[in-house]
Amino acid sequence: MSVNRRRKRRRVFQRNITLYSVVLVFLAALGVLSFFILRTELLKNTQDLGESLARSYSSEERNNLTVYETLLDFGTEIIDTQTAQGRPKSETKEMIHTFFQQMQASLGDRTVDPYVLMDGEIVAANPWEGDATYDAQSTNWYRNALAADGEPVFTNLYTDAVYNRPVITISQKCSESDTVMAFDIFPENFQFQSNPLPLPENASFYLCDRKGALIYSQTILDMEGDELKPFMDELVASIENGEQDSYNSYMNDPLGNKRGVYYSYMPNGWISIITVPYATILRQLNSMAAAFSVILVFSLATVVILAWRDWRLGEKMDRTSETVRVLGNSYYALYRVNVTTGTYDMIKGSDYIRSRIPPVGDYQVLLEVMTEVIEPEAYKEYVESFSLQSIRGLVSQRVRDFGGDFRRLFGDTYRWVNVRVLFDESLSPEEAVLCFREVDEEKQRRLQEQKLLEDALEASRRSEKNKHAFFSNMSHDMRTPLNAIIGLSELVQQNLDDPEKISGYMGKINLSSRQLLGLINDILDMSRMEQGKVALDYQQFDLRECVEECASTFRIQAEAEQKEFQLRFALEDEVVLGDPFRISQIVNNLLSNALKFTGKNDRISVEVSQFAHQNVAKYKLVVADTGIGMSKEFLPQLFEPYARETRFGVKRVAGTGLGMPIVKNLVTQMSGQINVESEPGKGTTFTIILPFTAVKDAAKKTKREPAVQTFSLDGITVLLAEDNAANMEIATEILSMSGMKIIQAWNGLEAVELFKESRPFAIDVILMDMQMPQMDGCEAAKNIRVLTRPDAKTVPIIAVTANAFAEDIAATTAAGMDAHVSKPIDFTVLQQTMEKLISRRGS
After folding, report:
1. Topology of 312-438 in CATH?
2. What is the C-alpha separation between 160 and 165, in angstroms, rounded?
3. Which of 13, 45, 52, 735 has its CA 20 to 30 A from that of 756?
C-alpha cells in the first residue's frame, strides 16, 4: 500500500514537474513574443513621437520665418506706396533705410542683412563690401522673386558673394515695380528661442534646405559641417527614396550607432529631421528583457519546489480571482459577446439592464435596450460602431482595443461613460468583451482643459491681431508729426526774412517733436512694463499738490478749448508714501484722453477723496468727462496692449493706444484697482482706488527757493563722440554757450585716440554715442577704461544715445559708463548729470 502510495506520489510529482516545465516553456515563448511585440510598439510609438517632434520643430521654424515674411511684405508695401505716390527715388531710399533701421532695432543687429535691388542699384542697411562686378539681377533670389510675382521665396543655402559666408536669402517683388526686397539670413540665426518639445536623450535635430544642404543642427556629434556632409547626403537621400518611412527603418551615424529617422517637410520645401538612437528607444525594453530572463531562470530553479507545494495552487487561484474582481470593479458593466452566434453573456450589468433583459440572450436585444439610455446625439453613431457586424469586423482584424466616450442617462442625469470592445487571444476567436466605465469627472476635466487651451489660443490670436493693427496705426501716428516737422522746416528755409513766421513755425515744430517723443516714450514704457523692469520709487509727497500740478496744464488747455474743468479734493491726510512720478503719469494719461475725446462745452472733472479701509488709508481718484464715450464691445479690450477701437469717434486722434495699458499696469503694481464706465455719446468715468500709507502730522512742505549754484560748467573740457553731423552741431553749439570747450570725435575709435593723446585729467567728461562706425560707444568706453593712465578709470563717461531700452542701459553700464541720457537730449538733465559726476570725481 505504501509502495502504491509512493508510486502515486511519484506520478503526481512527475506530472507536476511536466506541467510546470510546459508552463515555463510557454512563459519563455510568451516572453519572447511579448519582447518583439513591445519592441514593435516602442518603435511605432517612437516613430509617432519623432514625426510629431519633427513637425513641431518645423512649425517653430516656420513661425520664425513668418516674421521675416511679414517684414518683407511690410517693406515692399512701403516701396509700393512711395512708387504709387510718385515719390522721388531719394525719398524712397530714405524710407527704405528708415525701415531697415527700425527692423534691425526690433530684431537685433546682424540678425539679418536687408537690402533692396531697385533700378539695378543695391540699397542696403549695411554698406556692401566685396566684388564690384556682382550682378544682383542674375542671382537666384532676384529671378525667383520676379517669377513669384509678389510672394516671398526662399533660396537654398549658398555662399554669399559679398560676405563669403553660407547664407539663405528670402526675397519678394514689389507689386508696383520690379523692385525686389531681400533679407540674407545667416544659418547661426536659425537656433530656436524656445524649443517646441524637448528632444529625447542623445537625439539630434537637423534642418536642411530643398537640396538637402544642412542649414542648422543640434546634435551630440562633435563634427563640423564638412565632416557631416557625407552622412547628411546619405540621410536625405534615404528620406527622399522612402527608405525611412517604416517604423523599424534606421541609419548608422558616423560613430556606427543605429538611429531611427523621423522627418517633416516644411511648406517651403525644407526638411526637419529628428534622429533617435536605438539604444535610447529600447533601453527600458532591454532592461525588462534582462529582468525577465533572470525571473525565468529563477522560476526554473523553483519548479521542483512548486511541484510538491501543489496545495497552494488553489490559494493562488483564489488570489487571482480576487484580482480579476478588483479589476472588474472598475467597470459597472461587462458583457461577453459571441459574434458567431450573435449572443451575449452578462458578466456584470447595470441595474437598468438587469431589470430589462436576462443574463444571457440575443445581442440585438441588448443593443436595443442600451440605446434607450444613450444621449440622442450619440445614438446613431453608437448603433453603427457597436453593432454585431462592426464587432465581428473588429475581431476579424484583431483590433485589441476599440471604443469611445458618450453620455448615458443615470436616473434623470446624463453622465459621461467610456465603452471599450476588448479582444485578446486568450478569448475564443469569435468572442470579444464589451466594457462600460463611468468617466464623468475625468471627461469633464479634459473638456475644461480643452476649453482653457482653446481660450488661450483665441487670446493669443487676438493679441497677435492687435499687434498688427498697432504697428499699422503707429506707422501713421509717427509719420504725422514727422511730416509736420519736415514741412515746417522747409517753410522756415523759405521765410528766413520773416522772424514772426519763423517763430510760429518753430513753435509748431517743437510741438510736433514733443508729440513724437510722447509716442516713443509710451512705447518704451510699455516695453519696460511687459519685461517687468518698472520699479516704483516710494517717497513722501503731497498728493494734493501732485494732482494740482498735473491738472494745471490741462486746465489751461481746457479753457483754451472752451471746455469746463473741475478739480475737487476731500482729503484728511494729504501727505502720503508713494511714487509721485507714477501718480503724475496716471493722471496725465487719464486727463490727456479726456481732453482728446471731448468737444466744445463738454465737462471734465477730477475728484480725489480719502476713505479708511481697516488700518490702511485708501484714496479714490475719479476722472470723468462728458465726451464721446466708448462702446460696450470695446471696454473689455481697453486695457489690452496694442488694442484700439476703430470706431472710437468721428475724428482721428493721435496717440499710441498704450496709455490705458500703462495706467492699468501702474495701478496693478501699486496694489490698486481701476474701473471704467462709459457709454457712447454720454462720456467716460475712470475710478481708481489706491492704498497709500498716510503720513500723520506731516508738516506742509513750503516751496523752497532755488539752491544757490555752487558748481559751474564754464571752462570744462568735453570730449564729444557723435557720428551724426546735425547732432554734433547742436550739442557743440549748446554746450559751448555754457562756456564748455568741445573736442569733437566722429567715431568711437577716434574718441579713444583723442583721449590717449590728451594730457591726464585734461578731459573732464566724455559724451559717448552708442552706434558709431569703426567702433561703437560701448567698445570705445571699454578701451578707455583699460588704458594705463591715472584718469582712465575715473573720467566720467555719459552715454548719449537714442537706444533707450533697459537692455541698452545695462550694456552701457557693463561697458563702464557712468550714466545714460536718452535722445532727444534734454540739455538741462544732461548738464545736471555732468555736474553731479564731475563733482563726485573731484571729491
Report:
1. Beta-Lactamase (3.30.450)
2. 5
3. 735
